[in-house]
Design a protein that fits this description.
Blueprint: E1 9-10, H1 12-19, H2 23-32, E2 38-40, E3 43-47, H3 48-63
Antiparallel strand pairs: 1-3, 2-3
Length: 69
């Protein structure tokens, strides 16, 4: 059985890299609750699925914006 190469949870740095943003912005998104994170022991991790949900919310917001006049 082949192991999935994508981890279930990512470090802040890995999640930032995955989104193509900086670590500081990623920390701000986590701190504000825009991107959900979990604590495993003393470690802060971002579930892979939460990044996908965040991007989907952004896409929804962009499609709901009114057309420019």
């Amino acid at each position: 059985m082949a192991a999935d190469a994508t981890p279930l949870v990512l470090t802040v740095e890995q999640a930032a890299q995955r989104l193509g943003i900086g670590r500081t912005l990623m920390c701000a998104l986590v701190a504000s609750g825009e991107i959900e994170s979990v604590t495993i022991g003393r470690l802060r991790r971002i579930p892979d699925q939460c990044l996908i949900e965040y991007v989907n919310r952004l896409r929804q917001q962009n499609t709901q914006l009114p057309a420019a006049a």
